[in-house]
Design brief:
Helix 1 crosses helix 7 (about 115-130). It is globular, with a radius of gyration of 18 Å. By secondary structure, the protein is mostly helical. The longest helix is centred in the middle third of the chain and has 16 residues, at about 50-65. It has helices spanning about 15-25, 25-35, 50-65, 75, 95-100, 100-105, 115-130, 135-150, 150-160, 165-170; strands spanning about 5, 90. Strands 1-2 form a two-stranded parallel sheet. The chain has ten helices and two strands.
Length: about 170
């Protein structure tokens, strides 16, 4: 089955290509549905709009819903389609991600041509950063691992297994 199209918002063909590929990756969509990041995101309110992973989940799951013709009410009037109604449109404007291009990589700008492969690499990095423990949590995790004295290979395997899907899906 073919998902809905994506509106080109000014030289965003590279971004649209990557989004189409990710939206049609069954393992990624299943992981997003099974263990979504958004409910556990450390950002709140308007700051959550800057979370690349929250925006990607919204895009992928909205596209999948439109693909099956069952729009969730939360996506209905949020500008999901070309005319903003969300319902009945076959094209989605990926504004959540285009508004966050600089948080994906500082060199990306709306309206400039970019490379799809580079965008995918930087997007995966941003997804992984969105779920990485920070500050004291990272230090506590490292100290606990050292205290356990786990073998390096076992420790890495366990860490990957215990991390959210952006890490094990793209590692």
């Amino acid at each position: 089955a073919v998902g809905c199209g994506l509106v080109n918002l000014g030289n965003t063909c590279y971004l649209n290509s990557v989004l189409q590929a990710l939206t049609h990756s069954p393992d990624l969509v299943a992981a997003m549905r099974a263990a979504p990041h958004a409910p556990h995101c450390g950002l709140f309110g308007a700051a959550r709009n800057a979370c690349v992973l929250c925006q990607l989940e919204t895009h992928v799951l909205r596209d999948a819903l439109q693909l099956h013709g069952a729009l969730a009410p939360s996506f209905g009037a949020s500008g999901g389609g070309r005319n903003g109604s969300g319902a009945g449109d076959r094209a989605v404007a990926p504004r959540g991600l285009t508004s966050n291009l600089r948080s994906i990589h500082g060199g990306f700008r709306l309206g400039t041509q970019e490379d799809a492969h580079e965008f995918l690499r930087k997007l995966v990095d941003a997804m992984q950063r969105a779920t990485a423990p920070t500050g004291a949590i990272a230090l506590a995790n490292a100290a606990a691992a050292a205290a356990r004295g786990a073998a390096a290979g076992e420790s890495v395997a366990r860490a990957l297994r215990d991390k959210p899907y952006p890490h094990h899906a793209f590692t």
